[in-house]
Amino acid sequence: MENCDKKAVVLLSGGIDSSTCLAIAKQQGHETYALSFQYHQRHQIEIAAARRVAEAFKVEAHMILELPLGNIGGSALTADIEVPKSADVSLMPKGIPVTYVPARNTIFLSFALAWAEVLSAENVFIGVNALDYSGYPDCRPEYIHAFETMANLATKKTIEGTIRFRIHTPLIRLSKAEIIKKGIQLGVDYGITHSCYDPDPHGRACGHCDSCLLRRKGFIEAGEPDPTIYVK
Description:
Blueprint: E1 7-11, H1 16-27, E2 31-38, H2 45-56, E3 61-66, H3 69-72, H4 104-119, E4 123-125, H5 141-151, H6 156-160, E5 166-168, H7 176-185, H8 210-222
Parallel strand pairs: 1-2, 1-4, 2-3, 4-5
């Protein structure tokens, strides 16, 4: 087996979870390679946030790929579908919301896997969470386990026995408050991150989409000031 255990590809959106995930990968001593996607999402401002976070943590490389998921649509983030808004977390709709992007994590992880194979990096980090999240099916532990199994069946280097891929999900069983506390301990500046699904033209957060509500709830429960700039 190649000595690949120190390299890691980290999926980085520029939000709380992925930024904290990057900080954890760095803390564990990995050489980090950040991967972000411009997938025609309405909140493209998150790419600027991802750049800021990648620079702050001095990653080895930051790759930004363009994916035409807007051509597929099917989501309030990539099509002309209204982003749901609520007054507080208790009023968020149940079930899988319209902000779900079809197969997004499968697509993202597939590109991360391809880059990891080229880099001979056996580690892929993704900041999925199964507690304070919006109900997306591709954030569940059983999904991650299935993808890891597939990854080790589907690549040249795993078949040749030179590498074995591991999908790391260090946040998967943490609350948003616990994630924020962990990130602050590791030096994450959440003021440079972005979470809102429907920001205004100046990049200010709407304050009422699912992502904003979960972010604000997290800071309140963590007892930390929320650095987010909201429209109101």
